[in-house]
Specification:
Distance between the termini: 52 Å
CATH architecture of the largest domain: Beta Barrel
Radius of gyration: 26 Å
Number of helices: 8
Helix content: 25-40%
Strand order of the largest sheet: 3-2-1-4-5
Order of helices and strands: HHHHHHHEEEHEE
Largest sheet: 5 strands, antiparallel
Shape: elongated
Number of strands: 5
Structural class: alpha+beta
Strand content: 15-25%
CATH topology of the largest domain: OB fold (Dihydrolipoamide Acetyltransferase, E2P)
């Protein structure tokens, strides 16, 4: 069976429609922020809704025109070209169907420690922007309530103040997932978050070292924890100037917005 170029267009519309439906489903289930920055979620949903409408109209019109075409007519020529296009709709349907089924079969989830390991070259990179209005405000908090500092705030400070004495005794209260880089000492894990600018593609891992011998028996990598304690100097082989001496490490639920911005 051969298909003309309109059939190729019809299946292309179909594939795009499946993608639009999936993105909108993520948005209404409040899971789109697992893949994109929260400020772009509404824009992404609106764009996909417009695309859904436009492709739906295109799909219906193309199907109607094909139903009016004389039987057996190949509008894009015959011979070798027709042989080339004949397989495309079937292949496109198969690919679109597999992608759609996989998307629904596999639950939406945030980036994991595997992704953090793959992007370890950018771990705690120097370009981190603190969550406050400026670096000066972040450092000013060290004279006040340091439990208000987020993981990006601490990482930003690490890149400014490298002396362990600056952090000695400073209290910390953060939430993140358990990440153990391959290069980290056995008794150390990082309470981590991903920082995104646009979407998960540009996400960079950030984390604070926690000294907790035997943590492997208590927590799985990628599990979310709430860590409280204070910083102290360390002889562990880590890049950070200080390490968290935990007062408590409690399992917790993944935040609604797992990434930091």
């Amino acid at each position: 069976m051969r298909f003309d170029a309109r059939a190729v267009s019809l299946v292309t519309y179909f594939a795009i429609l499946l993608f639009n439906v999936y993105i909108l489903d993520l948005y209404f289930d409040q899971q789109l922020t697992l893949y994109t920055h929260p400020r772009y979620a509404l824009f992404t949903a609106i764009f996909n809704a417009i695309s859904l409408l436009a492709c739906g109209v295109g799909f219906v019109l193309t199907a109607w025109r094909m139903s009016k075409a004389p039987p057996g007519k190949v509008s894009s020529g015959s011979g070798a070209f027709a042989d080339r296009v004949s397989w495309r709709p079937t292949f496109a349907v198969l690919v679109a169907g597999l992608v759609f089924v996989s998307a629904y079969a596999l639950p939406a989830r945030t980036l994991s420690s595997d992704a953090a390991e793959q992007r370890s070259d950018n771990f705690n990179s120097a370009q981190v922007q603190p969550s406050g209005s400026g670096t000066g405000n972040t450092l000013a908090l060290f004279g006040a309530d340091t439990t208000r500092l987020t993981i990006p705030d601490w990482v930003s400070a690490f890149n400014l103040k490298t002396a362990a004495s600056f952090y000695e005794g400073k209290k910390v209260d953060v939430v993140g997932f358990v990440f153990h880089p391959k290069s980290a000492p056995r008794d150390v894990f990082y309470v981590s978050r991903f920082k995104i600018t646009c979407c998960s593609v540009d996400a960079r891992p950030l984390g604070l070292p926690v000294y907790s011998p035997g943590w492997q028996e208590k927590f799985d990598e990628d599990s979310w924890v709430h860590v409280t304690g204070s910083f102290t100097g360390t002889d562990q082989d880590i890049a950070e100037p200080a390490i968290i001496d935990p007062q408590s490490i409690d399992p917790t639920a993944q935040p609604a917005n797992p990434y930091v911005t």
